[in-house]
Design a protein that fits this description.
The chain has two helices and six strands; from the N terminus they run H-E-E-H-E-E-E-E. It has about 140 residues and is of the alpha+beta class. The radius of gyration is 16 Å and the shape is globular.
Amino acid sequence: MDSDLRSKVEACCRTAEDFTKLYYTSFDKRRHHMGRMYLDNGLLVWNGNGSSGKDNIQKYLNELPTSEHTINNLDAQPIIDEAVGGQLTYMIQSGGTVRYGDESVRPFQQTFIITAQEDKWKIASDCYRLQDGLARADN
């Protein structure tokens, strides 16, 4: 890997760590402020349910029960300039466990596309999925 690409990947990984700490702390403790983390026309797909626009996303997130996330894995990579018109953009994947309200702890996976906007990172796309086991039919 050349030094320029290595530098981009390292910056992306540092950003992913900082971003996910902020995101999950905000989600679990200050959810009413989550809308400001999204682009005006951001997209959220939450367990197959979609919402677009930061105001609609905020409304959707506010309706979810209280939560407590634990992150067990994190991966990130920069998206090549040609794909995003030179706009600094990263893909971040996180996974761990979450407890909603009084429910039992469940595994989850989340993928973000974040982009630099002035001096802040904004979520362009957010896909969240609870990782329930696949049902298997015994033959």
